Amino acid sequence: MKNAKLADMVRGWFVGNFEPTLYRTNNVEVAVKTYKVGDSEEAHYHKIATEITVVNEGKVKMFDKIWEHGDIIVAEPNDVTSFEALTDAVLTVVKLPGANNDKYLA
Known about the structure:
Helices cover 0% and strands 48% of the residues. The protein is mostly beta strands. The strands form two sheets. Strands 1-2-9-4-7 form a five-stranded antiparallel beta sheet, with no helix packed on it. The chain has a five-stranded antiparallel beta sheet with strand order 6-5-8-3-10, with no helix packed on it.
């Protein structure tokens, strides 16, 4: 048995090939990410990985659309998007495969 605290993980990532991690693998990366209103990320894309985002709480803007609780967004390789938290938000993010250094600024 293993256990950890999400607060001890880097930016919410707890499964993947990085440190710290609760489960090391190259097959997938998983995170629960918490954002404050106004937090943002520059437009980027992945060449290898597909990234699936579940909006657990709040409202966010991705792909120039507004997403809220219960929405699931799939960003496939080469899809370019930026990110903005329109309210405080909690997201679950799954990236597969777990591809280290696969984030490119647009």
